[in-house]
Design brief:
Layout: E1 3-26, E2 36-45, E3 50-53, E4 59-65, E5 69-82, H1 109-115, H2 124-137, H3 151-157, H4 162-175, E6 180-188, E7 194-205, E8 209-214, E9 219-220, E10 225-231, H5 234-237, E11 240-246, E12 250-260, E13 263-273
Antiparallel strand pairs: 1-4, 1-5, 1-11, 1-12, 2-5, 3-4, 6-7, 6-10, 7-8, 8-9, 12-13
Length: 274
């Protein structure tokens, strides 16, 4: 299913005290390929960011702020066509890179046992069965984990969100010597539902190539998904990250609007951090 999606993603940081120094890193730029075509895209923020391509092929914008500010605003917007036929993409890294375990995806005995719940993973159907087994063990529970939660911790507690589902899936596959990676992006459905920052996983099957699995929604990635960035885990593909000096208490508000042929999904998030 081909979709024409118009997206506007705004992030605002407000500080109780003057911000003395900050580095903001954004991975909010979709690229052509993997079933999508970017018709137009722009990022606006305080100051002029430096753009580069990282080792995974992600477009990264880095902004250094070294003057007193009480507010930072970031707006990413544009149009993306999705659901297109997948074309061959040039791999920047050898597949063996995606066998590397990270702190967030290190498999323990429980992860390995879950991986072995599917006898042989050599097909898309087998990957989907693994996905089903993960969600049955770890139902989607909003707010149950944090960005620091590991795959093994989420499996042990039996609750998680899309990030955790992707990490568990990746950990299982890597324990079986199947190259796998983490993908961040947006999800839009015809019901008007929107996950402001969604995540899924990709695994490499010989003879097939990369297979994209949305574990949380029990489906293959399709025209409702917009891909932003990828890497070994969440840390490599996080849409927005940064460090700061000063500023005191920080409040962050995020708004995402996604529309397609008269259907519009909106999500507002307010988060306070000390």
């Amino acid at each position: 299913m081909t979709m024409q999606l118009t997206i506007k993603h705004t992030t605002q940081y407000q500080y109780a005290d003057p911000l003395l120094y900050s580095i903001q890193q954004l991975k909010l730029t979709p690229q052509n390929g993997f079933g999508q075509r970017v018709k137009n895209w722009s990022i606006q923020m305080n100051g002029q960011p430096h753009q580069h391509i990282d080792a995974y092929g992600n477009v990264v914008h880095t902004l250094v702020i070294d003057k007193n500010l009480s507010e930072i605003n970031v707006t990413a917007k544009g149009e993306v066509e999705t659901g297109l036929p997948h074309s061959e993409t040039q791999e920047r890294l050898p597949l063996t890179i995606y066998l590397r375990n990270t702190h967030l995806t290190q498999p323990d005995e429980n992860i390995k046992g879950l991986a072995n719940s599917v006898e042989i993973i050599d097909s898309i159907d087998a990957l989907q069965r693994l996905s089903e087994n993960i969600v049955s063990r770890v139902p989607y529970t909003k707010g149950s984990t944090s960005v620091f939660t590991t795959a093994s911790q989420a499996l042990d507690t039996g609750h998680g969100v899309c990030q955790d589902h992707a990490h568990i899936f990746i950990a299982c596959c890597r324990s079986l010597n199947i190259p796998s990676r983490y993908v961040s992006g947006y999800l839009f459905t015809e019901r008007g539902d929107l996950l402001e920052s969604h995540a899924w996983a990709e695994s490499w099957l010989n003879g097939i190539g990369w297979v994209s699995i949305d574990v949380s929604n029990q489906c293959l990635v399709n025209g409702t998904h917009v891909r932003l960035a990828m890497g070994l885990d969440y840390r490599d593909a996080c849409p927005v990250s940064g460090i700061r000096v000063g500023g005191g208490a920080e409040s962050m508000s995020v708004g995402v609007d996604v529309s397609q042929q008269g259907l519009t999904a909106k999500k507002q998030i307010e988060q306070i951090q000390q």
